[in-house]
Amino acid sequence: AKQSKVSAAWMIDACGFKGIERDGVGVSAGHALVLVHRGGGYAALLALAEDIAAAVKTRFGCTLDIEPVVYTGE
User: Fold this and answer.
1) Taking the CB of residue 66, how many other CB atoms lie within 10 A of it?
2) Predicted confidence (pLDDT) per residue in 38-63, tens digit
3) Partners of 36 in beta bridges
4) Closest to 40 measured CA to CA, from 23, 26, 20
5) Rounded to the nearest 5°, which phi and psi values hold at 10?
6) Which of 25, 28, 29, 66 could hold 19 in an S-S bridge, CB 3.0 to 4.6 Å?
């Protein structure tokens, strides 16, 4: 079977998450792979990541792996 690469950012954007904000967290309007903290808690950030992964799985059948990269702005 032929394999092909699909951009995770493209799939997240196609699921409508790019640029959204909720519960003090969101997805960057500039890049769909960047989750941003705007005063919400860590649990809200993880919940958003889980919702994104579930939507991508449902729509495209792909499982996203969360990379634990944290930028603190320092």
Assistant:
1) 11
2) 898 888 998 999 999 999 999 999 99
3) 26
4) 23
5) -65, -45
6) 29
At 23 the pLDDT is 94
Q: What's the Cα-to-Cα distance from 4 to each of 1, 52, 74, rounded to whole Å?
A: 10, 21, 37
Contact 44, 23 (CB under 8 A): yes
DSSP structure class, residue 11 = H
Burial of 13 (0-12, 13-18, 19+ CB in 10 A): middle
pLDDT band for position 12 (cuts 50, 70, 90): very high
> Quick one: tokens of 20?
């959204």
Q: How many CA atoms lie within 13 A of 32 on its CB side?
A: 16
